[in-house]
Specification:
Number of helices: 5
Distance between the termini: 20 Å
Radius of gyration: 15 Å
Strand content: under 5%
Low-confidence stretches: none
Shape: globular
Structural class: mainly alpha
Number of strands: 0
């Protein structure tokens, strides 16, 4: 377990996971839309995706407001890019899900960090 924790804390690991997750969001958001199994399931995907992005970003830059602004801005840019992508559309509800997911991800990582330090 100690080796895993060291690897999780390594700067290259943090950078790589953040870069791969960011790329996955862009590719997944601009590629062909997946069929929805659950009503409003894409909002759940947005929420979880941006919560994870915020957690990974916070591990690189532990500045809550900056990380939230970065992730929320990325969510807006993705939605704007989708408006120019065939078979995709601009959806303000997706932007809201992105921003709320990022906020919850930051709340989670901040609570976890404080719990781990105590």
């Amino acid at each position: 377990m100690q080796a895993f924790w060291w690897y999780w804390q390594h700067p290259r690991t943090k950078q790589s996971l953040f870069a791969l997750w960011t790329l996955a969001i862009w590719v997944g958001s601009l590629g062909p839309a997946a069929p929805q199994v659950v009503d409003q399931g894409d909002k759940i995907q947005h929420f979880i995706g941006y919560a994870t992005l915020a957690i990974l970003a916070y591990r690189l830059w532990p500045y809550t407001l900056r990380v939230w602004l970065f992730t929320a801005t990325m969510g807006v840019l993705v939605e704007i890019a989708q408006s120019f992508t065939p078979n995709r559309s601009f959806d303000p509800h997706d932007m809201l899900a992105n921003a709320l997911g990022a906020a919850l991800g930051l709340l989670f990582i901040r609570c976890y960090s404080r719990w781990r330090q105590s």
